[in-house]
Design brief:
Largest sheet: 5 strands, parallel
Order of helices and strands: EHEHEHEHEHEEEEHHHEE
Distance between the termini: 43 Å
CATH superfamily of the largest domain: Response regulator
Number of strands: 11
Low-confidence stretches: none
Structural class: alpha/beta
Strand order of the largest sheet: 2-1-3-4-5
CATH topology of the largest domain: Rossmann fold
Mean pLDDT: 88
């Protein structure tokens, strides 16, 4: 099945640029230049990926992101932000975006970023459609990751993770107690290592902690190693 990407962008030139370059990859696109209309399209149709501009008529991309994430927890979302708008980037990620790109952006980087997200989405779809598949579990103390079914349990409680959160946790679980810098995590999980996108890692760590930790402010599982990066503490998931 062909992937379809919804572009919610009120600048027609930018929207057309994105559309042409995604179609070059064999990806179908739909477009809305209005925030409210874009939200309705996102909620009532199935898209492999949403590309959301922040500043839109009638409703901001941040509000769309919040609403879509609540209704469709597994929806892949990539925010398009102004180059100097750090607040928008952080807010978008905290509201549930998987990633962001700053305008102006490289067309090749956009294509690479979209391909990376679609690979992750299609893996999840393949697992969902093959629900009878045999389990392939990664067990680490009370943390259980079923790599075949794409599910995570902690102390027998199923966690509701986005595809990106799942991939980040799985990467940590395959390397318990190993410390990774933000740059290493960007490359391993998101598939790129461009400078300036460290907020992506920080926000996903915060979101994972909110779902894993009884007290995210005193993290025992995903720990910060100051001046270096993050690690999964194997003792933190023991009984």
């Amino acid at each position: 099945m062909t992937d379809t990407v919804l572009i919610v962008e009120d600048d027609r030139d930018i929207a057309d640029l994105i559309r042409v370059n995604l179609q070059e990859l064999g990806i179908e696109t739909q477009h809305s230049g209005d925030g409210q209309k874009g939200l309705e399209m996102a909620l009532h149709n199935d898209y492999s990926l949403l590309l959301l501009d922040v500043m839109l008529p009638s409703m901001s991309g941040l509000d769309i992101c919040r609403s879509v994430r609540q209704a469709k927890p597994e929806q892949a979302i990539l925010m398009l932000t102004a180059k100097n708008s750090e607040t928008d980037r952080v807010l978008g990620l905290e509201l549930g975006a998987d990633d962001y790109m700053s305008k102006p952006f490289s067309v090749r980087e956009l294509q690479a970023r979209v391909r990376s997200h679609l690979r992750r989405v299609n893996l999840l779809k393949g697992v969902t459609h093959n629900s009878a598949a045999q389990s392939n579990e990664l067990q680490l103390g009370q943390l259980c990751i079923d790599e075949q079914k794409h599910t995570v349990k902690l102390c027998d409680k199923t966690l509701d993770l986005t595809a990106t959160e799942y991939d980040l946790l799985k990467h940590f679980a395959h390397h318990p107690d190993q410390v990774f810098s933000r740059t290493q995590l960007l490359e391993a999980v998101w598939g790129y290592h461009h400078n300036g996108y460290e907020h992506t890692v920080n926000s996903h760590i915060n979101r994972l902690r909110a779902k894993l930790e009884s007290d995210p402010a005193q993290a025992k599982i995903i720990q910060t190693v100051w001046g270096v990066g993050y690690k999964l503490n194997s003792l933190g998931v023991q009984a």
